[in-house]
Model the fold of this input.
Amino acid sequence: MEVALAKILIVDDDIHISNLIRRFLTQKQYLVESASDGKTATEIFNRFRPDLVILDINLPDTLGYNLCQEMQNQNDVFILMLTSRTDVEDKKKGFLIGADDYLTKPFDLEELEFRVQAILRRKRIINSTDINILQFGSLIINPETRQIIFNNEEIIFTSLEFDLLYFLASNQGKVFRRKDLVNNVWKNNPMGDNRVVDVHIGQIRRRIDSDPNKPPYISTVRGVGYKFDFIDSTKKN
Done:
């Protein structure tokens, strides 16, 4: 049986870096295409349908942040931001708009491969012959189609946000420390840390915990971490 190769799109206006990454990842048995601007990247993205986009922030016709959002709005493609910016706020902005990881230039190709493997491994976290659709009131989580339905509407989540929510919901009532979430969801990805966990929890809450009149799905356990704790408000005591 032939195994499908992961498809990676490189978007960087530095041709030297783009070609270097393309040759390296091709040797590692990935299917790779590249673009040097946002317009070309969008055209290739729609045709190529990559599993992962390695995306530079500074492009000649747009910002990588904008392109990241556009791509995430279409599907849950993985995004690895590649940039010379080292400011924490820049990284935070990238994670808030849907990036899965962040690599700063200059970088080592072996580290790039490690991060690519760690990101792509997430799509296999919930692949199983024993798949259960989770439902908590108006919230439905389907791990097979990776869809989240809330109040009868599909809510778009990034791949990492989906994995984080699914993990918490699959362990309803159990409290997880931030480091436990890193170990279980981020796996070996070094960019998973306490601060990044908080950012992604905040993003999930904005989508499903926006009603102040209802108990939140994800609760903060002060001094410890987080837990998914659904309370059916339709049931009377």
Notes: The domain at 134-228 is CATH 1.10.10.10 (Arc Repressor Mutant, subunit A).
